[in-house]
């Protein structure tokens, strides 16, 4: 058994707000599956599981702010489904005695896997047993300790399989009389139970809370989630309908309607204005630290993009818009490969020395429409062909703007690239993102007079810049880097 | 890509606006004059523009090549382009 903890989603993150669980206890998860949504100062991030197993207890309520490293849930070891599962007998599930996720052989029993659900599926109705033992959260708790153990499982004598079945069938376990050993509720008990008169509404925990806070009857809300589960956005839609089109949230500009940043629009501590404020503050802190601690030096060079442009045009001609490449894909690839040639710019400044990184993970500065910016990460960018880079870039930019990045997409950048070309400027001299030691900038691709071989012509050019940490490298190293970027872009077919 | 019937100007313009709105949900078209460069006014970056090309080409059922991009600069250009392209049958 291990603990799924509040991850650090950036060098500047100390704590995070658990916004919503996307898994339920008893659910099998695999490494990389999305477990929960966590709000940081900058964005709502989908946090993935780092190992496979079965979701045990959820230790932290949605709406709770906890420090990085706090256990959020227990992950029980992956196990081969037990043959007893077929017999339909509920298994004893002892609540863990400690929330820190130590090894607990007693709980390493085999769990039959509920059918795997889509990773992004919102949680179905919380288990009746758990729900009963929970207080209705009324708002954000600060630093709430993990729920003490010994709750649901010991109150209701039913194993996870049975509880899961009860959830699926909408049966309230507290109303059942167990016929198993020691009054334990068996699968048969659930199967024979009368379904409740009004079937329990499937809804995500946040939707449930929102409905409660807004006084909306969940049963009257049309769910658009998996299997008709009610999502937070549905509650707000219902609210707007009830209020004659005037919802409680702001109606001014901002892409915060519908699916974008679905859960951020109402919560007291994260209204869009606040989100912008907290992001502004986070950027201010990080950039101040950068300028306070890092002695920057700056280099700039203008690169002839004729070869890259021709190559792109040739490639794109045969492609549908979906598969076309933009110059940014080639620029990123060149920036990544050049870092392989000049590893002194790829890594971190830690404890007074440069620590090179083993991979080249490019942070991509993405400006958000509502203001602010995020720098999601393309991992091992130097190894990706331009097509794959392009796909990743599109995904990251889209998710960054929708406020739904994954945890792994927010961490591990070893070098950041910023491109302000679309804003129409020719050069950007960036501020390094600590603890990284360099930042590469690309301006707009523009046509300029260009002398080559004694002839003057008009060519597409881009200004590439480098801001680098003078503690880690000297100008000569930076110069080698920009020269490499230039050389690589002259042979786009090899990128 | 299914060829649709020819679009008239009004239909083309509303298709363009719908498509842009899908990419920039809060796009305010009261700020965009017919001959403004809408990419600048509405802050569409190169990826956004590519998405727009994708949507227009899908919805209008026409091929849009990179060579056509200069015809997609203003709302009136783009409207004219779609009307002509759909009439010509791609």
Précis, in short:
The complex is a heterodimer of chains A (495) and B (90). Chain A contains twelve helices and 21 strands.
Kindly describe this structure.
The complex is a heterodimer of chains A (495) and B (90). Chain A has 495 residues and is an alpha+beta fold. Chain A has 12 helices and 21 strands. Chain A has helices spanning 84-87, 128-133, 152-155, 160-169, 187-192, 205-214, 232-242, 272-293, 306-317, 327-341, 386-402, 475-489; strands spanning 2-5, 15-21, 28-29, 34-39, 44-48, 53-58, 64-67, 71-77, 141-142, 296-304, 347-350, 353-356, 362-364, 366-367, 373-374, 377-378, 405-406, 415-419, 438-442, 446-452, 455-469. In chain A, strands 10, 13, 16, 18, 19, 20 and 21 form a 7-stranded mixed β-sheet that branches. In chain A, strands 9-7-2-4-5-17 form a 6-stranded mixed β-sheet. Chain A has a 4-stranded antiparallel β-sheet with strand order 1-8-6-3, with no helix packed on it. In chain A, a hairpin with a 4-residue loop joins β4 (34-39) and β5 (44-48). In chain A, α6 runs parallel beside α7 and α10 packs across α12. Chain A is elongated, with a radius of gyration of 26 Å. Chain B is an all-alpha fold and 90 residues long. Chain B has a single domain (9-88), classed as Orthogonal Bundle (Non-ribosomal Peptide Synthetase Peptidyl Carrier Protein, Chain A). Helices cover 53% and strands 0% of the residues of chain B. Chain B contains 4 helices and no strands. In chain B, α1 (9-23) packs across α3 (46-60). Chain B is globular and about 30 Å long. The N and C termini of chain B lie close together (10 Å). The mean pLDDT of chain B is 89. At the A-B interface, α9 and α11 of A face α3 of B. Chain B: Residues 7-86 form the Carrier domain. Chain B: Pfam families: PP-binding. Chain B: This is Carrier domain-containing protein. Chain B: InterPro entries: ACP-like_sf, PP-bd_ACP.
């Amino acid at each position: 058994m291990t603990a799924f903890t509040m991850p650090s989603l950036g060098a500047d993150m100390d704590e995070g707000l658990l916004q919503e669980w996307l898994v339920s206890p008893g659910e099998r998860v695999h490494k990389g599956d999305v477990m929960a949504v966590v709000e940081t100062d900058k964005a709502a991030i989908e946090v993935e599981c780092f190992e496979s197993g079965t979701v045990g207890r959820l230790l932290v309520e949605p709406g709770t702010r906890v420090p990085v490293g706090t256990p959020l849930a227990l992950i029980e070891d992956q196990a081969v489904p037990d043959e007893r599962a077929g017999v339909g007998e509920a298994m004893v599930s002892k609540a863990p005695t400690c929330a820190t996720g130590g090894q607990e052989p007693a709980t390493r029993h085999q769990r039959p896997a509920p059918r795997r659900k889509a990773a992004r599926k919102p949680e179905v109705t919380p288990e009746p047993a758990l729900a009963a033992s929970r207080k209705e959260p009324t708002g954000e708790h600060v630093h709430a300790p993990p729920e003490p153990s010994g709750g649901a499982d010991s109150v209701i004598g039913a194993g996870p399989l049975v509880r899961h079945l009860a959830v699926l069938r909408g049966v309230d376990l507290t109303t059942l009389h167990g016929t198993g050993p020691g009054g334990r509720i068996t699968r048969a008990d659930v199967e024979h139970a009368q379904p409740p008169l009004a079937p329990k509404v499937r809804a995500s925990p946040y939707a449930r809370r929102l409905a409660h806070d807004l006084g909306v009857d969940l049963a009257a809300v049309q769910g658009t989630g998996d299997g008709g589960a009610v999502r937070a956005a549905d509650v707000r839609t219902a609210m707007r309908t009830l209020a004659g089109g005037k919802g409680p949230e702001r109606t001014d500009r901002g892409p915060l309607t519908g699916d974008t940043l679905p859960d951020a629009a109402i919560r007291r501590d994260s209204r869009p204005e606040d989100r912008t404020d907290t992001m502004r503050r986070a950027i201010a802190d990080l950039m101040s630290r950068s300028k306070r601690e890092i002695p920057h030096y700056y280099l700039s060079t203008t690169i002839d993009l004729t070869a890259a442009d021709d190559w792109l045009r040739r490639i794109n001609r045969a492609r549908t818009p979906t598969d076309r490449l933009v110059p940014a894909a080639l620029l990123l690839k060149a920036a990544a490969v050049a870092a392989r040639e000049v590893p002194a710019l790829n890594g971190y400044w830690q404890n007074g020395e440069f620590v090179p990184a083993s991979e080249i993970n490019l942070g991509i500065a993405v400006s958000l429409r509502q203001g602010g910016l995020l720098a999601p990460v393309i991992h091992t960018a130097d190894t990706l062909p331009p097509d794959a880079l392009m796909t990743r870039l599109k995904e990251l930019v889209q998710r960054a703007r929708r406020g739904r990045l994954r945890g792994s997409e927010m961490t591990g950048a070893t070098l950041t690239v910023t491109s302000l070309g679309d804003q129409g400027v020719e050069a950007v001299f960036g501020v390094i993102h600590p603890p990284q030691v360099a930042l590469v900038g690309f301006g707009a691709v523009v046509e300029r007079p260009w002398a080559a071989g004694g002839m003057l012509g008009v060519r597409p050019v881009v200004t590439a810049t480098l801001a680098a940490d003078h503690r880690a490298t000297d100008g000569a190293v930076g110069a080698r880097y920009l020269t490499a970027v230039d050389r690589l872009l002259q042979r786009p077919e090899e990128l | 890509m299914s060829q649709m019937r020819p679009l008239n100007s009004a239909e083309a313009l509303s298709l363009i606006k719908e498509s842009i709105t899908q990419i920039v949900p809060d796009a305010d078209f009261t700020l965009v004059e017919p001959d403004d460069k809408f990419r600048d006014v509405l802050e569409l970056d190169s990826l956004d523009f590519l998405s727009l090309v994708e949507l227009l080409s899908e919805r209008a059922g026409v091929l849009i090549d990179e060579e056509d991009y200069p015809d997609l600069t203003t709302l009136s250009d783009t409207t004219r382009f779609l009307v002509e392209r759909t009439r010509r049958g791609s």
